Amino acid sequence: MFDEMVRKGVIPDVFTYSILIHSFCYQGKMHNALKMFEEMIAKGVLPNLHTCNDLIHGFCGAGDIDKAFQVYEEFVGCGLHADVCVYTTLIDGCCKHGAFLRATKLLQQMIERGVMPNVSTYTCLIHGFSAIGEWNHATGVFRDMLNQGISPNVVAFGALINSMCKHRLTFEAEKLVSLMEKIGEKPQCTVARIRPRILSR
């Protein structure tokens, strides 16, 4: 259909390309999605944030962080500005695939470019560091989030509390449970299961 449209002289716009790229990403056909992305840029059609985010999410899901960064760099190279959703998707992908240095550098970069992280951005890092037992790094990110005036969500609390329990930091874990209750976050089932372990030590 796309080729037929072009043959008939209809010039594809950013919405046409974005729909096709989204479809390729959804189907896991990342080679086709990237090819379409590069074609639109070559033809002078600037991608939008949705296009960029779809591609980054697709490549991160496929475990190809290098390609995700390639898309990000091409997007920025067009003179466009990534938003918090694009940065968060890329940071999440880095954390899920162990690229923590890239993730922390990207966090610093977004702040320097005037894009403020949100609770989801910080939660990706907290969950990632907690998952590999780096509770000290996770705690540092947690403090940064609080210093920015952002209230942690139950996922961030749960990941950090669980990591602290594994390292027998029961006093610190109990303080986090109390803080969670103080700011009005209701413990989810995982945190509720962890609490008896805290109290029993």
UniProtKB/TrEMBL annotation:
Superkingdom classification of source: Eukaryota
PROSITE patterns in alphabetical order: PPR
- Repeat (PPR) positions are 13-47, 48-82, 83-117, 118-152, 153-187
Q: What InterPro entries does its record include?
A: PPR_rpt, TPR-like_helical_dom_sf
Recorded coiled-coil stretches:
none
Task: Enumerate the UniProt keywords alphabetically.
Answer: Repeat, Transit peptide
Gene3D superfamilies referenced in this protein's UniProt entry, alphabetically? Tetratricopeptide repeat domain
The family note in this entry says: Belongs to the PPR family. P subfamily.
Name by which UniProt lists this protein: Pentatricopeptide repeat-containing protein
